[in-house]
Amino acid sequence: MKESIVDTPRVSEILSACISSGDPSAASAVVERARDKKGFGVEDAAKIIGALGDPDFDRRLFEAAASVKKDIYGERLVFFAPLYLSNRCANDCAYCNFKSAHSALKRADLSVEEITRETASLLSMGHKRLLLESGESPEFGVERVTEAIRAIYSVKTRFGSIRRVNVNIAATSTENYRKLKSAGIGTYQLFQETYHPAAYADVHPRGPKSDYIRQITAHDRAFEAGIDDVGLGVLFGLYDWRFEALCLIEHATRLEKKHGVGPHTISVPRFRPADGVEYAPRYAVSDEDFLRIIAILRLAVPYTGLIISTRERPDIRAKAFGIGISQASAASATGVGGYGVRASGTAKSVGAKAGQFAVSDERPLADVVASALKDGLLPSFCTACYRRGRTGEKFMELAKPAEIHNFCRPNAILTFAEYLEDFAAPAVYRKGMAVIEKTLAAVEDAAMRQNTRSALDRIKNGERDVYF
Ligand code: SAM
Ligand code: SF4
User: What's the 104 CA to ligand 2 centre distance in angstroms?
Assistant: First the structure.
């Protein structure tokens, strides 16, 4: 395991050296080279960090990130929603509403029947991809999560079914990861929260999560269990973002070295106020720095999906989509049973359905889709790679020479066409179909373009779940 652990003193040294000796021409060279989409490691990322603040340099950084984003992901933006299963938690994370010390919080977990209902609500909103969330507790162990995954996949409504279930639950054993794998997990996401050991100890005073090593080696155990799509993240605000961004890059590099494939995704949550949480981040990240983080990560790990959540305001999300974000949650409820709450409008402030944190983008999916279209993006609900076995190393083999485009564009078109047929108001339908036609014309391979056209016609005629 040792080789997967990030050498944080070394990262600190590299960062301090670059900040004190800031070399703008070396930093510019890194940014220019990164347009080749080969990525870079912690030393080069630190050079960029050392040169930030000069408006001209920052502009070039954002331009390069936007160009890499466009080359690799085109106009696509994948949407998903979180589903909170349980807010019981044995941990006491200072920043979280679900912490064990929050005695006013009503604790709850969803039964299979309730999971089925929440899933049906999410399907009726237009979602096809979910991210399961839960606290860590003996009452809601891995068996309950695997039961939930199976229950979710089995829900079939007139809007189809959930096709990919990603999971964000506490670090666990290889044996438990095997159970998740056999239940059909998509990506396993786990955030280190902070890579700084002392800061980590401060905010995780007790409970199993207080074990820094258990947390940082979790992705290795997931790989050992055969889960080959894993996601990293930190909670920005707990420590200096510059250190955290470098550690994310280092962690990604180490996973790739050890397992032959880096992380499938990196999430960039920023701390948000929450009920029962007095924690005030000493290292709050400004909007400007937040966008810089995204640009640096996009250039450093070009083939890794970058995920943004509804913790962020619509205006920041729109900017982030342009410079690197490839996946976004939308219309999220962050409490247990939250989608039922939406329907009945009975949210209570500290009830079980109260969110884990305050969201900043409360728009319904239809509005998020409409604004993405306005910004020239193609919303996607694609789950094809995972279902065709294009995961882990196989995914990267296709992604790196950009062959993944041959699948992604058509699949994005087809999943968005389904969405438009089933959910869109007439004006959005017209605009969406126009974007689809434009994107279809950009499918380079003539045979694939033709196949996509036929599949699109089948969808318009009522067929669903057509993918390559
Ligand atoms: N309980 C598991 C864990 O801690 O790894 C899994 C999911 S937890 C529900 C998801 C993530 O929410 C945490 O990893 C943390 O980064 C984030 N989070 C917790 N409190 C937050 C807050 N106040 N603002 C923003 N994000 C928060
Ligand atoms: Fe529990 Fe996760 Fe919240 Fe920590 S972040 S208190 S582990 S739910």
Answer: 16
